[in-house]
Structures are given as structure tokens and as C-alpha cells.
Amino acid sequence: MYIDVLVNIKSFGEKIFTYKINKNIENKIKLGCRVEVPLSNRIITGLIINIKNECEFETKEIISIIDDTPILNKELIELGKYMKKTYLCSLISSYESMLPSAIKFNKKNKNIKYETYIEKIKDIEAPTRGEKNILDLFKDNKAIKISEIKNKAILKRLIENNVLKATKTEIYRLNKENIEIRDLNKLTVDQKKAYDKIKKSNKMINLLYGVTGSGKTEVYMHLIKDCINNNKTAIVLVPEISLTTQLIERFRSVFDKIAVLHSSLSEGERYDEWRKINENKVNLAIGTRSAIFAPLTNIGIIIIDEEHEDTYKQENNPRYSAVDIAIKRAEINNAKLLLGSATPSLESYARSKVSKYELITLLKRVNNNKLPKVEIIDMKEEMKNGNSILSNRAIELINDRINKKEQIMILINRRGYSNYIICNECGNVIKCPNCDISLTYHKSNNTLRCHYCGYTKQKPNTCPNCNSKYILLKGIGTEKIEELLKEKFNVKVIRMDKDSTSNKGMHEKIINDFNNCKYDILLGTQMISKGLDFNNVTLVIVLNGDSNLNIPDYKSSEKTFSLLTQVSGRAGRKEKEGIALIQTYNPNHYSIMYAKNHDYEGFFNKEIKIRKQLNYPPFCFLVAIRLLSEDFDLCNKEIDKINKYLKKRLDEKYTILGPSVSLKINNIYKFQLIIKYKNKELLYEVLNEIINYKKNKIKLEIDFNPIRL
Asked: What is the pTM assigned to this prediction?
């Protein structure tokens, strides 16, 4: 027997070598296990990616097997090869993206937590008082944690005399207290229609377009229940860690074999959850983007909630789309893929329009609750009255809700206290030394921070350029709004942004505290805009509702419509009616007007015409070619060479945009070319030639369907 082993050699990159297997250990060899192998005069670790009976040349034998159980199953081994071909990335990077950080190709130790339990084997005659105290613990308990027994000397003697026995037991770090499992809620008439249509659909990919509060999650749970009843498994993806808190609690109340995978877990917790899946101890995996690689077998359904979100695209190597991976896994498992959203991506909705996807709609809220009334406030007019942050209408509605003891959500998509500091005398703006970006002021610790590279410094008392004392704080962020709300309304405000949720468990704590009405106002960035469900929220206010429109991106209107529609949908989700207030300097922009009227269809029809006219997705695909370097001139010269090469190799069916250069981030300049294409055959041939580009001091990136241009 022979095996092909994938290894990563620092000086050469990844390589695949063939090794011979000693007949004595042939039965222990499994695809997807790690092995130690000889290479030159070294011993290295590699992954078995193929097993075969013959080899045409002489090979060395492996040294040892590291894993008893494969760390990657056959499906994931093949999926890694698909990713390498599709995203032009390495096999190593593909496989490492599937594994928890506790497992590395060259790391043999296992991060497993154990608890020692003590069991009673026999009774003894005439025990001492100390022995009796310990033995009495076993009257009502079969086993006791060793930590609960204080007198370790007597305990040791009882174990040595075979009266007690110590057993080391593996435990999971994320285990929750036992939750009573309830039956599923009965579906409403509309939900049942949607459920039946999905069940009967002969299409693999289904798109569930349901307005906010229409009960998409209940439909998800019924479909998952069917899979589990048929001895199949399921994956549910959510775009944000903040969304997992409420969703997981809902799922835990119905399903008992769940694993959770997201980046907020500690290394040990994530390893435990992954092992539960890998050892077939669960039938449902819930998590963010990387949970698409959960090593489940016999998958019956994959559900991607809020499928329109950018967070499903990985921006680091390998630059995969979780939706693309889900499609591939659904194909392999003959499973259904359900994409759900109140604001589907234009690409998904367009595919449903031409019957590539099955379209299912839920156009009413549960129990016919009304969608919130949306009001648009023109901040140009408010500025004339001296209201630069909160409009008169916002102040009026906040006071009204406080008096009624109803809750409020306020969204501003900037964290910190002030966006920048400027000198009133010389006009100097304090910038990050590593990036072409102004530093953001955080009042809580009196620091200036770069939200790109993490650079931090204490706020100066004078201008670094001219030593003037007249330095001004400009712009607003979540900290400043929090301070204003507390001063103006004397209310309890809780802030939810990257700063306030940096400590473990804070997402869950903030959501639970607000849900239990410990606070009047939840103030946050984009992370509060979707998926959250609070009974008592009747007012949502969006500050700077047009902030996404200022971004030079062909998706800026779509992102604006989606954000405003989603956050507005947090209001009035139960019996009480809700109002959403959108403050903007562009009140007549079509994305804002369609969001005001909850008119997704109207927005789609308007936006799709613009996309067609400009030839942007879904009418083409995009790929970005980037060069990154600290040397501006060298990078500029090299991107020009690649641009000329592309124009020489690609015909008129391909459109090349650029090159362009972005702001310096962390002392790195990024030059970029964009290619629009429909047919990928010639493109992949050319890109495979470019991928071998090597130049000192320059890094090359290829990014298919990038989320930022």
C-alpha cells in the first residue's frame, strides 16, 4: 500500500510525496489522517490525501501515524481540491481553513480538557471520621468530582486501598445547562405554504425571501427537524457572531445535539465543538462563515440566513465564498440549500427570476403584525435649526417611548467618540503613522486609534504640527452618541460595537440584558441591524442613513437599501406597532425611498437596470488582481506590466478596469486590476500563469467576486 502525503516545506511551499506503508500498520491508515514522514534528513508532518495500491518508483516508508481518527473526511479532502482549482489557492490553506486552530499540520498536541471523577468500589469496616466524611458523599451520587473532595491525603489512601477509583473523563468546555426540549411551534398558514414549497421543490437551491418578522427561522427549524428525523444532518450559517446568541437559544430549545462554531469561542471551545461534529455526536452545526466546513456527513440541508451579507466572503487566503462552498457541499450530499433574507442579494434574486433558484416568499409578518412605519428626516433642513446629530422628530419620539417604557434601538455605523481631530490653526489632521487614515478618538480611555492597523496613542493636548492648543474633535461615533443620550434623556444606554464586545461573552450579555429590559436604548453599529428580535422595541433610529452611499462601490445602493430595511425591521415585531426614523442628507435617493416603502421588488427592478447598463454582477463576474508592497514605485511599475500582459492575452470579451491604488494601510500600498468576465476558460488559463508571478517585496492576490473594489 502507498499513500500520497501533502506536506508544507517552508523553503519550497506545499508538495505531495508518495510513501510506502508497512504491512503491519496498513489497517490503521485512513484518508485524512496526519503522519510523520522522512524527507531528506528531516522528519516532517503531512496529511494523507490519497491511498493507492501501486507506485511506479521506489519510496521511503512513513515513520508514524499521528491521528487515530481522520481530521478531514473524504468529502472535505475533495472539497479542498475544488477550492484550490476554483480560487487558485494552495491545498494547505484550503485544508487549514476547515480546521480549528488547535489542529495544525505540524502540531501534535491535543487541546483536550479532562475532569477527574471519583467512584466508590466497596465499603470498609470501621472507617475513620475523615474516611466516613468522604464515603458519605457517595450515598446519593455515583461519582464525585475530585475537586469537591477536600482531604486529598485520605482520598489518596482510599484510592490506594481500592476503596475508591479515580476516572479521568473528557469534558466539553461549552456545555450548557440542560434545557428542556419543547415541540416545534405550529407553522402559520403562510409559513406552511413556504415550507411545503421548499419540500416539494425539485431545485437544489431555494431562496426564501421573507420580510423582517415573517418567521423564517420557524420554517428553518421545521425543515431541520425533518432532516434529523430522516437520520440526516444540517448546517445553519449566520453572518455575525452577535446573531448566534438568540438563534442558538431558539435552536437549543428544540434540538439537543447541536455544535456551535464561530470565532468568539476560545481555541479549546472551538476544538471541542469541532470534535463533537467529527465524532458524529451532533446532527446540527450552527455558526458563522467557517461553519460551512463542519465535518458532518450525510447532510440533508444547508441554511444560510441573511444570505446577502458580505461576511460570508472570506477576505484572507483562501478567499472563498461560503455560499459557493455550500452549493458544492449540497451537490456532493444531494442536499437542499436554502438561502434566506428579507433583502436578498441582487445576484440571488435575479437567479430566482430566471428559475435557477426556487423562489419562496413570506410577504407578511407573523400574526399579520404591521411592518414599521418609516419616516425620512432631511438633515440639511435640521442643520438649519442647529440639529446636527438628533433631529427634532427623533427627540420627540425618544421622549415618547421613554414615557411609555418601550425600548429604542439607534444605529450609527461608526465607533469611537470622534472620527478625527483637526487643528483649528494649521488645519492638521492627526493621522495614523502606518496608514493614510485619520485616527479615531476614544474618550473612554483618552486614546487615538487606527481602526485598520490597530495603532494606538494617547490623545495629545496640543497639535503635533504647530503646538497649538486649539485642536477640535470632529465627527461622531457610538461613544459620543452614548454620552449625549445619557445627558439629554437620563436613560440607561447600552452600547454594542467592536469595542464594547471585545471581551468574551459580551455579545450574549448585552443582548440578554437588553432583552430583559435592563436598558432603555441599545446603541450600536451595523452588528445590531439584523437578525435580533426584541419584544419591546418600538422605535429604531438610523443616524447617517446615507453613509454607505459615499463609498465608491457599485453595490453602495444595494448595501444602503439592505441596511435600512434590515434595521427598520427590528421595530414593532410583536403586538406594539413600530416606527423607524432614517436621518439622511440624501432623502430622495432611490435606495432610501424604496427602503421607506419596504419595496424590495421596486428597488430590485431599478437597480438591476443600472447594473445591466454598467455591466456589473449579476450580468458578469469579477476578479481582482492585487499587488501589495511597501514600495510604491516598484508596485506601480509591476502592476503596469501585468496590465499590459492581460490586455495582450485576453480578447474583447473581457473588460479590464484599472489599475487603481488604495490608501496606504499598515505601511502597505495596494494596486488593483479588475476583470469583468462571463466565460472563465481563457481567464483561468491566464490567471494560472499570473499566479506564478514572483517578485521580491511584492505580494500577489487573486480575489474572485471581491466584496470591496
From this structure: 0.89
